[in-house]
């Protein structure tokens, strides 16, 4: 993207009907670390990549707990994500204090979208440069929403945002139809597979990813890094066995073909 005369103000339309400041904010989401969400009938899983800016620094949190029934994963400007997660927390607390019941996830997402949309109509504000995956569970079931800096929001069965997220989306598009009846652990495994797709050859370990789960009779919580590493190790063992089985099958087929050629030659 390049600077032009229509991008100095968020309220200035280009002749093509575009708001460049909003598009720049959406571009910031694409530059952030990958975040992934998956849901079944009873559980929702969030996963993110933790990458420190240097070897001397710690990584920044990409997943935040909002309430016992809802949490968010972010991609983009972490500071904006932290402010919005605090806003979501306040909304849940206020609703619980007044109505003595959890705030429905769909209503929470609308509040968040309205807050983001206001920043696209005020010349003295800028759009939030962060995308949020909102995972929650309420009376209507499990939900996974994506909130965009433009103020739009969409509900998904599975979705990925951030850097190199297209590889994860491709994996999720192949698998999402099987997620419906999955339990938490099965969703976590697929989330780790999707995270691995975004790393492009880098080794996946429990130290560079964060996973959180919310489900029926299971409040929002973070999965222990040791548990994540055990799941990654079991996935690697299974992958090696599958690779070995494929190689063995090829060898058997090759031997059978050679034997058939030999028998044919012997008969002639």
UniProtKB/TrEMBL annotation:
GO CC, one annotated term: proteasome core complex, alpha-subunit complex
Entry's localization field: Cytoplasm; Nucleus
- GO biological process terms held by the UniProt record: ubiquitin-dependent protein catabolic process
- Pfam families xrefs: Proteasome, Proteasome_A_N
Q: Which UniProt keywords apply?
A: Cytoplasm, Nucleus, Proteasome
What InterPro entries does this protein's entry cite? Ntn_hydrolases_N, Proteasome_alpha, Proteasome_alpha-type, Proteasome_alpha1, Proteasome_asu_N, Proteasome_sua/b
Main location (coarse class): cytoplasm
Q: Residue ranges of the Proteasome alpha-type subunits domain?
A: 6-28
> Can you tell which superkingdom this protein's organism belongs to?
Eukaryota
Decide whether keyword Nucleus is in the record.
Answer: yes
The record's annotation in PANTHER family points to: PROTEASOME SUBUNIT ALPHA/BETA
Which family does the UniProt entry place this protein in?
A: Belongs to the peptidase T1A family.
Provide the function of this protein: The proteasome is a multicatalytic proteinase complex which is characterized by its ability to cleave peptides with Arg, Phe, Tyr, Leu, and Glu adjacent to the leaving group at neutral or slightly basic pH. The proteasome has an ATP-dependent proteolytic activity.
Q: How does it assemble?
A: The 20S proteasome core is composed of 28 subunits that are arranged in four stacked rings, resulting in a barrel-shaped structure. The two end rings are each formed by seven alpha subunits, and the two central rings are each formed by seven beta subunits.
Full protein name = Proteasome subunit alpha type
Say which species the protein is native to: Acorus calamus
Q: Which gene encodes it?
A: PAF2
